[in-house]
Write a structure and sequence with these properties.
This protein is an alpha/beta fold. The chain is built from 4 helices and 9 strands.
């Protein structure tokens, strides 16, 4: 993570991914550990982490759409549907996301996860924690912590070759 001479934030998403890989490996503490990526950036990360860590099977993908507190104004997002190709009941879940901000998406995801069963534990690993929490939720692992103005958003992109990059956008 660095800043350019213009003061704009530059994050090396691939370097952060390498750090995240080691952090998530430390969170995978039992044979019941299952990775679950939050759509869409978290799902991309979970798919690559699953392969790079060498975990059997496929990671889960979870959507926050049906449990969002702004559903009435936002509606169903174009993002993916929840797919959990394993038993949630009794599993040790590691939720994977690209960026945590207010915590509202995470709250919705946890509600969605419990619709599928009661996991033994739930941990959270994120590529970037940008602060600004509105709910008392914190990641167990964050590859980087940055401060951005509320008017800016941080978006993970995935190239055709699978490499990650970040883009700072006006919200």
């Amino acid at each position: 993570m660095t800043s350019s001479e213009s003061g704009a934030l530059f994050l090396d998403a691939e370097a952060l991914y390498d750090d995240m890989l080691h952090g998530v490996q430390r969170l995978c503490t039992s044979p019941r550990t299952r990775l679950v990526g939050i759509t869409s950036g978290g799902a991309w990360l979970a798919q690559r982490l699953q392969r790079d860590i060498g975990l059997a099977g496929e990671p889960g993908i979870i959507s926050s759409a049906l449990h969002r507190d702004d559903f009435s104004t936002r509606g169903l997002a174009a993002g993916g549907q929840t797919v959990l190709p394993f038993e949630v009941e009794g599993a040790d879940i590691v939720l994977i996301d690209d960026v945590i901000y207010t915590g509202r998406t995470l709250r919705a995801v946890i509600n969605e996860l419990f619709d599928y069963g009661r996991p033994a534990s739930v941990k959270l690993a994120v590529l970037v924690d940008r602060g600004g929490r509105e709910l008392p939720l914190q990641p167990d692992y964050a590859a980087a912590r940055v401060a951005l103005p509320a008017a800016e958003s941080l978006a993970l992109a995935r190239a055709a070759d699978g490499r990650f990059s970040f883009h700072v956008q006006e919200a």
